[in-house]
Amino acid sequence: MTLETMKQNYEKFEQAVDLLQKDLDVSYLDAIIETGDNLIEGGQLLIENGKPSPDIRSKLMELYQQLTNQTMPTDEMRQIIQFALLKANQIDKIQANHQMTPDMIGFLIEYVMEKFLSKDKEYKLLDISVGTGNLLSSVFNKLKLHGYQPTKLYGIDNDDTLLAVASMSARLQKISAEFIHQDAIDNLVIPKVDIVVSDLPVGYYPVDKKVVNFETHSEEGHSYVHHLLIEQSLQQLVPGGYAFFVVPRGLFETKETQKLLSVIRKQAYFQGMLDLPDEFFSNKNYGKALLFLQKHGGGAKQVQQVLIGTFPSLKAEDEFTNFLGRINSWADKNLD
User: Fold this and answer.
1) pLDDT tens-digit profile of 76-118?
2) 136-171: buried (b, 16+ CB within 10 Å) or exposed (e) per residue?
3) C-alpha gyration radius of the chain
4) Are 162 and 132 in contact (CB under 8 A)?
5) Can you give the residue range of the structural domain that contains 38?
6) Number of domains present in the structure of the chain
7) Hey, is 3 helix, strand or coil?
8) Same domain, yes or no, for 191 and 326?
9) pLDDT band per the 50, 70, 90 thresholds, residue 34
10) For 50-76, what is each residue's pLDDT tens digit?
11) Which DSSP letter does residue 178 get?
């Protein structure tokens, strides 16, 4: 499908969301969810207390018919929802920890992920802080496109509105996914998985008594939630399973570093860490990196040379392409 067709489809989706949001007087995010749900039902409208009003209904039905009367590639649907969510960030003033992971970060994670995976195996994936599900579905779609076999997705979040977006998006993309509304620090109610991929929230976990059994808990004051989630993720992996995290660049530069490193050494192999380009972030002081871990067991082993580096700017095309080539060379030398 051409870029122009995708632009036209997004504009129709956006028009439908705008109409609903104004007529129902709801948040932009809620209007996105209801628009997606209506499309999942074949363009059927949910009418409550006379809303949407009759004149808006006819406009919506026409837009829905135009969107449902075509076969849209799954990743195009994901991108349409992504663009709508970017608008929601501006209108609803969504807090930073709740905003979706940019597509380019998903591309880079999946690029490195492929170096570790086999096309002959099936993989269950978990995002332990799934939010709107953009990172999880983006990685899923790219793995499928490149011949890998992700078979089931799981997403966990304690925000029911974001989970509603993730669920709606997955259903529109016809992805087999299960989303669980719970605190990811609690005992998880899903099976063990082969891969955890997550853009971890950064900050402090507020309930100290709930994390006393975590090795990464702080002896004084609140514990870092991203440390706790790394520990929880490693517990949820099968032997030899992989964890791909988006983390603060200074992850190993705090007073709690030794506890986190101890947990990683006990449970997993530290396979790599790559700083993301500064241009991905509005403030370079809040820059992030990709962290790659592999749980002990299942034939896993420590790579001879840990993958360490910094992605060049996307504007430096030759440097960026050469860096991807260096990742390929590293994989050829260090991975079976």
Assistant:
1) 999 999 999 989 888 877 666 556 677 899 999 999 999 999 9
2) bbbbbbbbeeeebebebbbbbbebebbbbbbbbbbe
3) 21
4) yes
5) 3-92
6) 2
7) helix
8) yes
9) very high
10) 899 999 999 999 999 999 888 888 889
11) E
